[in-house]
Amino acid sequence: MKAMIVNEFGDSSVFTSTEIAKPEIKPGHVLVRVAASSVNTVDMMIRQMGPDLPLSPPAPAVLGMDFAGIIEAVGEGVTDFALGDEVYGCAGGLADLQGTLAEYMLADAKLIANKPKNLSMREAAALPLVAITAYEGLKRAQVKEGQNVLVHGGSGGVGHIALQLARYFGANVFSTGGGDAQTALIEELGATSINYKTETVADYVQKHTQGAGFDVIFDSVGGANLLNSFEAAALNGQIATTVSLLELDLSGAHFKGLSLHVVFMLIPMLHDHKREVHGQILTEVAGIIEAGHLRPVLDDLTFSLEEVGKAHDRLASGQGLGKVVIDI
Fold first, then answer.
1. What is the pLDDT of residue 320?
2. Which of 184, 187, 240, 297 has its CB surrounded by the most CB atoms within 10 Å?
3. Which H or E element spans position 194?
4. Is 225 exposed, middle or buried (0-12, 13-18, 19+ CB in 10 A)?
5. Mean pLDDT of the chain
6. pTM exceeds 0.85 for this model
7. Signal sequence: where (predicted)?
């Protein structure tokens, strides 16, 4: 089968088109004919850092985590899927798991779900990693109906899904963005936009919560921005973040009694730990999508399998709006 592999790690030029053996079916797995894959920040980190990132596969490797496709073979013990099923998931591209940038991939049946019927393959491929991340973060932060929820980075990959899921769970949702296109998308998706470049944290906390702070904050920006989340949170508030690889003064969190939830959705794939939870989340997300409460936003540009390097460059440029998707 055709695949894009990396023989060494580095810039976006390291991808090479080659022929490799099609995976053989094994128990508990399905063989998927991949139709589309999307690019996530972690894909770029693996490509750049290689062995410096503990979750990276050894070279030569097939990268790519998210996919949508059609099942072509079903392994022993798999009862929830059949030949011809259209599925989506996040099931490869790290450690010893072959990625999605190939015509076929082997996927653990616990990590996948039936594709939302009202989405194209490209749209479905944009969802798994970001949808699982957003869902897990909001659930761990115990989001409830009627709460004031702030999503940092609401026009980004994870953020635009978290924003919509928080609305679906019944919250009053507010979201930060940094420009006209970003704030317009946030409003279009049903949240109140906050331009972090023109409004201070104190200003928007006073404006939208009368100074009390937000009950739940989903911080998809993270890093040093966590200090803004601490400032914006209500007393005993909940904060979920996807980016916490830094040293940080937690004094602000201490004096407000905040709970901080670090979401690292790759744990089930890396450690074979509760993988079935990912399949369950994707099944629930598919239902939410089919009921009309959630939709992925895709970047305007399209890329073929051979153009994966350009797709990585597009995401890295920050010029796109929505998920970057590759047609396989």
1. 85
2. 240
3. strand 192-195
4. middle
5. 97
6. yes
7. none
Six-digit token string for 4? 């894009």
Other beta carbons within 10 Å of 246: 9
Tell me how far apart the alpha carbons of residues 230 and 282 are, in angstroms, rounded to a whole number: 30
Structure tokens at 65: 């985590």
Q: Span 299-328, mean pLDDT?
A: 96
β-partners of residue 260 are: 239
Q: In this predicted model, what pLDDT tens digit does every residue of 95-128 receive, in sequence order?
A: 999 999 999 999 999 999 999 999 999 999 999 9
Q: Which of 150, 285, 274, 264 is nearest to 218 (CA)?
A: 150
Tokens 């830094």 found at = 246
The residues pairing with 69 across neighbouring beta strands, listed in sequence order, are: 34, 87
Taking the C-alpha atoms of residue 233 and residue 250, their distance in angstroms, rounded to an integer, is 13
Local structure of 83: helix, strand or coil: coil
Answer for the pair 281, 136: CB distance below 8 angstroms, yes or no: yes
List 4's β-bridge partners, or say none.
17
Give the chain's domains with CATH numbers: 2-127+268-327 (3.90.180.10), 130-262 (3.40.50.720)
Residue 108 CA, distance from chain mean position:
19
Residues 126, 129, 133: CA angle, nearest 5 degrees: 130
Give me the pLDDT at residue 63, please. Answer: 98
What are the respective helix, strand and coil percentages of the chain, to the nearest 5?
35, 25, 40
The phi, psi pair for 144, rounded to 5°, reads -135, 160
Contact between 162 and 134 under an 8 Å Cβ cutoff? The reply is: yes
Per-residue pLDDT of 239-283, as tens digits, reads 999 999 999 999 999 999 999 999 999 999 999 999 999 999 999
